[in-house]
Amino acid sequence: MGFTGFPDEAFVFYEGLEADNSKVYFTRHRQLYEEAVREPMLALAEELAPEFGVAQLFRPYRDVRFAKDKSPYKTHQGAFIELMPGIGRYVRIDATGLYTAGGWYSTASDQVARYRAAVDEDLSGKRLQRIADGLAERGYVAEGDRLKTRPRGVPEDHPRIELLRHRSLYFGRHFEPEPWVHTEAAADRVRVTWRDYAELIDWLCTHVRGSELPPR
Question: What are 88's strand-pairing partners?
Fold first, then answer.
């Protein structure tokens, strides 16, 4: 079956998981997760694949090996289309609604170095600033890992100081679980936002590229 939206039960499932993040809750509601969350997300990914590529669905389990929070399950379901390591498009549902994003998520040191060099350089840096300003004007929010202070060696009056603080950069938009989320119109909304991220992703693929460091 094609994508027909995310049913209200998907959001109810995550409301319950936030209240009781336990194996007992998840096991008891496993079928609800499969039917209301995972299957619609798979259908959405399949519908968008011809234009954007194949998406990877994230597993519902958290990696708690080095985390203080030992809650076993993620309180959202996400899917990611990776164009280069750490660069791509993202969609997620949770108890609060639907979220889409696009950009650069990893913080590999060689990627950070190339990113900052491109932001500092006038031609490429001004283009990214125009892209970022345009996305912000359309209601998208800049996110990612960023320094609280300026990077070492960067003057305080640098015209793109806010962009230079980033160690990863993506823009996103959140949608409340309004009636259209429960219909096929949700795919159109994701499609429109993913198209809006195209220029940012193109800039990132050109200047940041994939990490050249060997895997750990």
Answer: 82, 103
Which helix (H) or strand (E) is 9 found in, with range?
helix 8-19
Given a contact cutoff of 8 angstroms between Cβ atoms, the answer to whether 103 and 87 are in contact is: yes
Residue 71 has pLDDT above 90, yes or no: yes
Question: In terms of C-beta distances under 8 Å and separation of at least 24 residues, what long-range contacts does 75-83 make, across chains too?
Answer: 75/14, 75/17, 75/18, 75/21, 76/14, 77/37, 77/38, 77/41, 79/41, 79/44, 79/45, 79/55, 80/55, 80/56, 81/52, 81/53, 81/54, 81/55, 81/56, 82/56, 83/53, 83/201, 83/205
Q: Which two tokens stand for residue 2?
A: 């094609």
Sign of CA dihedral 184, 49, 82, 72: positive
CB atoms closer than 10 angstroms to residue 118: 19
Residues 31, 43 contacting (CB under 8 angstroms): no
Query: Strands 169-175, 141-143: parallel, antiparallel or unpaired by DSSP?
Result: antiparallel
Please say whether the beta carbons of 211 and 106 come within 8 A. yes
From CA 56, how far away is CA 36, in angstroms rounded?
A: 18
Q: Look at 34-43, 45-54, 62-71, 107-116 and tell me which has the smallest mean pLDDT.
A: 62-71
Sheet holding 169-175, edge to edge: 56-57, 76-84, 87-94, 97-104, 169-175, 141-143
